[in-house]
Write a structure and sequence with these properties.
extended; alpha+beta; OB fold (Dihydrolipoamide Acetyltransferase, E2P); seven-stranded mixed β-sheet; about 25% helix; 9 helices; Chloramphenicol Acetyltransferase; about 425 residues
Length: about 425
């Protein structure tokens, strides 16, 4: 029995998708629920499993094709005992009748063969071989019919360690640098996700008035807490105690004090969100995605760490859903994991602000009149100046700084 393999239902906001790559070819036996093909939307990669066990009889849509929900992309022949359908092979032209092939004439040194019409040389190639007294028959040509190019000659000279002779007596000797082996340009189409990221970043730059404010945080207290309780925390909750939970908690408290930083713009209206859905940037092989912590104000440190760890793994595996990547009210991004010391993050529309974390470095700090080494981090807040004034932006950063430098504030919510 033949079964149609169709594109699964796409999220409401997604109109179409791109068929990335087939994991099977026509004629292969497949098991039920085995992944047949990857389909990429703007944010995630969907796997299309085999609905039944059998043989992949026909593939109707090639890699790289744009597809829509419900479209038939393959035919599966049900039944483990189904005969494997031979993959379609391209028709090969019938061999041409054998022809007598005359032996190729060897090419004499150019000094004696300047008038030889069997393998004419271009003016630039002829000049190069004559000036350097080369035998063109010893050089392998890469052009059509084995003709020599200037690059072939330069490459030959580079391999044997010779340099071009001066073009005229008394003239300076030009140094001919042969192209490195393997030099080439590769043109690769953007993935759908990368194209969407590019589109959203361009949209953010064009539609917002971005300004960035900076501050620095002494993370001594947070690091001391982690050192003291990380083993007990992991044993109790089954998750590692990272820095992100502290930053999420500190950010939520700051946004409660300055709600316009948690707002968004719709036309001529400012939409204030009386909830705190924090997007956290996660790097994946296909690009940056931002899973959302819903109602982050109601989550414990353990909830945040476990949810983030789960979302990060599924995001990198392409198994996270569109719903989990949309609807955030504020974003946190951590370039510090890659070593970034200072940056100006770009707003994730339709949000109006984003917090950037950076690398922790020991730097001199003045504490009680004494210069001491402390683990410091620069933090940055990029905000839409159309609705957020510098005052609110700076005070938001100060609030985050105070909460992190005195974590007891997070427990007391002050």
């Amino acid at each position: 029995m033949s079964i149609e393999v169709k594109v699964p239902q796409l999220p409401e906001s997604v109109q179409d998708a791109t068929l990335v790559s087939w994991h099977k070819k026509a004629g292969d036996a497949v098991n039920r629920d085995e992944n047949l093909v990857d389909i990429e939307t703007d944010k995630v990669v969907l796997e299309v499993p085999a609905p039944v066990s059998g043989v992949l009889k026909e593939i109707r849509v090639k890699d790289g094709t744009t597809v829509g929900a419900g479209q038939v992309i393959a035919i599966l022949e049900e039944g483990a005992g189904a005969a494997a359908a031979p993959a379609k092979s391209e028709a090969k032209p019938a061999p041409a009748p054998a022809q007598a092939v005359a032996p190729a004439k060897s090419i004499a040194p150019v000094a004696a063969a300047s008038g030889d019409d069997d393998m004419p040389l271009s003016p630039s190639v002829r000049r190069l071989v004559e000036e350097n007294k080369l035998d063109p028959s010893q050089i392998k040509g890469s052009a059509r019919d084995g003709r020599l190019t200037k690059g072939d000659v330069l490459d030959y000279m580079a391999k044997r360690g010779s340099e071009p002779a001066p073009s005229a007596p008394g003239a300076a000797t030009p140094v001919a640098r042969a192209p490195s082996a393997g030099r080439q340009d590769r043109r690769v189409p953007m993935t759908r996700m990368r194209a969407r990221i590019a589109e959203r970043l361009a949209e953010s730059q064009a539609s917002t008035v971005m300004l960035t404010s900076f501050n620095e945080v002494d993370l001594s207290a947070v690091m001391a807490l982690r050192t003291r309780y990380k083993d007990k925390f992991e044993k109790e909750h089954g998750a590692k105690l990272g820095f992100m939970s502290f930053f999420v908690k500190a950010t939520v408290e700051a946004l409660k004090k300055y709600p316009v930083v948690n707002a968004s713009v719709e036309g001529n209206d400012i939409v204030y969100h009386d909830y705190w859905d924090i997007s956290v940037a996660v790097s994946t092989p296909r690009g940056l995605v931002t899973p959302v912590l819903r109602d982050a104000d109601q989550m414990s440190f353990a909830d945040i760490e476990k949810t983030l760890a789960d979302m990060a793994v599924r995001a990198r595996d392409g198994k996270i859903s569109i719903e989990e990547l949309t609807g955030g009210t504020f974003t946190i991004t951590n370039g510090g994991v890659f070593g970034s010391l200072f940056s100006t993050p770009i707003i994730n529309p339709p949000q109006s602000a984003i917090l950037g974390m950076h690398a922790i470095k020991e730097r001199p700090a003045v504490v009680d009149g004494q210069v001491v080494a402390r683990p410091m981090m620069y933090i940055a807040l990029t905000y839409d100046h159309r609705i957020i004034d510098g005052k609110e932006a700076v005070l938001t950063l100060v609030s985050i700084k105070e909460s992190l430098e005195d974590p007891a504030r997070l427990v007391l919510q002050i």
